[in-house]
Amino acid sequence: MDANRIWISGWGMFIKRRNEFRYYVLLFCVSLFLFGFMFLNELDIYQIIVSYFQNSNESLFNSDVGIFFSDSSEITFIKYTSIELHNALKYSSFEASLTRALSLFQIVVPLLASFAGLIMYHNQTSCNVLKSYRVKKYRNFIRNEQLRIAISVAGSIFSAYVLYYLIILFISGGRFDAYTIHTYLFLDVLGNKFYYQHLKFYYFLLGIVKYLLIPFVLAYLSTSIALFSTKKSTVVFGLLIYYFGLSVLMFPLVSVGTIDKFPIAMLFAPSTIFSISDYNTAPTILLFITNSMPLILGYVLFNHKTRGKHLEIS
């Protein structure tokens, strides 16, 4: 009887892991699609499409593209967009494709990280087998589940970035703008010389921070929010309120004080670490400290929910 129970429990766990894996594959695909979408936006592909439909074949033939055709009648949508896209790719730079092109990712990262909370919520409301766990084991189990899910979600996003990174490296051949540094994360510690000497490694390191560590801490907070949630919408909106709410609250306080000429308030805005504009010179160590807040808050929520309690199944 015990052997049958163990076999059934193990089979149920296998099914649960397989279903979770589908979510991680979906998250990888969504992240990769978003990276590609933002890259095409950087290439002005949408302006190219609009230009084709707004101008006649004669006008296009008299433009720079005309040299590729012997007659205006040869110009088709596929040929025109292919030529313009090829020209845009020739002038695309390695670092701009990994920074400016992906700047909008700061808007979607909390949505992607909330996948972790949704998975945790599903597990919390469906895994009745956990009723038998004692208090101490229950705490350990929940902590391990949070870490496992958060790491898996962050790993899915980072895997998409790594593939995107390799594609951009192949397309651009590592071509970069020698006169512009788009982001200064780590450079206050490592120096600008490190940036130019190890450009490819620098942007891989930057990817680890932006697309692995940051999604991980947000995903961990999302799993902690799920421990208190009775609805799926609460899991998603809880993380969005933290991320965007804190960012909005910090903007009116930019003039309150500075550290190394950087506004203190912006250190606490979760989106600052993705910035490539006015707020891209934040002190690296302080930025890492403030971005660990979701981990601390998540642990506080976890500790409050699980201390001296058994699992509650509704």
Explain what you see.
The chain is mainly alpha-helical and 314 residues long. It has a domain at 93-306. Helix content is 69%, strand content 1%. The protein is built from 14 helices and two strands; from the N terminus they run αααααααααααββααα. It has helices at 2-42, 45-54, 57-61, 77-90, 94-98, 105-126, 135-172, 187-190, 192-197, 199-226, 232-250, 264-267, 284-290, 293-306; strands at 258-259, 262-263. A two-stranded antiparallel ribbon has the order 1-2. A hairpin with a 2-residue loop joins β1 (258-259) and β2 (262-263). α6 (105-126) packs antiparallel against α7 and α7 runs antiparallel to α10 (199-226). It is globular, with a radius of gyration of 24 Å. The model is unreliable at 3-12 (pLDDT under 50).
Secondary-structure topology with pairs:
Blueprint: H1 2-42, H2 45-54, H3 57-61, H4 77-90, H5 94-98, H6 105-126, H7 135-172, H8 187-190, H9 192-197, H10 199-226, H11 232-250, E1 258-259, E2 262-263, H12 264-267, H13 284-290, H14 293-306
Antiparallel strand pairs: 1-2
Helix pairs in contact: 1-6, 1-7, 2-4, 6-7, 6-10, 6-11, 7-10, 10-11, 10-14
Transmembrane segments: 21-40, 101-121, 147-171, 201-223, 235-259, 279-302
Keywords: Membrane, Transmembrane, Transmembrane helix
